[in-house]
Amino acid sequence: MPDLTNWLLVFVRASALLAIFPLFSATNVPIHVRIGLGAFGSFLVAPLLPAIPVGSLSLWALIHLIFIEASVGLLLGFVSRMVFYAIEFAGGIISTEMGLMLSANFNPAANTTMAAPGMILHWLALMLLLSLNLHHWMLVGFQQSYTLVPVGGAHLSEGLLMDIIGRTGMTFRIALQITAPIMAISFVITLVFSVLSRAVPQMNVFSESFPVRTLAGLTVFGLTCNLMAQHIQNFLQRLPEDVMHVAQLLGTG
């Protein structure tokens, strides 16, 4: 019975993590796959944890432990997905600057609608996630999280709250760094057409600027894809350290 309880609590944390973690939370990933991965990972991790004395636990105490473990998994998954939230925001900015917001389509990997630039960046980030073997690190990091946050050992603290708020605000900085070239060329085009509207008042600047803005934006987007990939890679490589830092704050709160 203690082994089954250990497995159940580990399964709850693993399932909550996979429900938000990039790639595994996509709509085109069947829920049976997530459940199977969570169950298999729990079978590997649960025997390494100290047994929980089930006899001394009431039903409400067990429910409380399940709630805590689900919250820990969701929080770790949320931190893992921070970079992808920034990428989705960056894709929205690029699409707006290029005038492509009306061509948004459903992206099953993000469970939301995106324009073409946002989809390209999102799939680029997923490929970098796999090429950097961060999905393998997830298995190691999940097991190590129990050394920092044991079962039922999570605590809320002011330091944890400030850290999450700071990481949430950092998503906007990441998005601005990714979209800086597109925003710069959009500003130059706006400035040029503002001067033209003064020189040629008969020109319909609003309608004439759209094709120029779209063509220039696509050109700059294609030329700076390598730079955007480097930015995304830098932030993805910091992902293991960020998740472990949040887990440490959870355990020492």
Structure in words:
By secondary structure, the protein is an all-alpha fold. The chain has one domain (about 1-250). The chain contains ten helices and two strands. The chain has helices at about 1-20, 30-45, 60-80, 80-100, 115-130, 135-150, 160-200, 205-225, 225-235, 240-250, and strands at about 105, 110-115. A two-stranded antiparallel sheet has the order 1-2. A hairpin with a 4-residue loop joins strand 1 (about 105) and strand 2 (about 110-115). The chain is elongated. The two termini are about 30 Å apart. The mean pLDDT is about 80.
Quick recap:
With 253 residues, the chain is an all-alpha fold. It has one domain (2-252).
Total strands: the figure is 2
% residues in beta strands: under 5%
Poorly predicted residue ranges: none
Sum up the overall morphology in one term.
Answer: elongated
Task: List the main descriptive attributes of the protein structure presented here.
single chain; 253 residues; mainly alpha; two-stranded antiparallel ribbon; 10 helices
Topology:
Elements: H1 2-20, H2 31-45, H3 59-80, H4 82-98, E1 105-107, E2 112-114, H5 116-131, H6 134-148, H7 158-199, H8 205-223, H9 225-237, H10 239-252
Antiparallel strand pairs: 1-2
Helix pairs in contact: 1-2, 1-3, 3-10, 4-5, 4-7, 5-9, 6-10, 7-8, 7-9
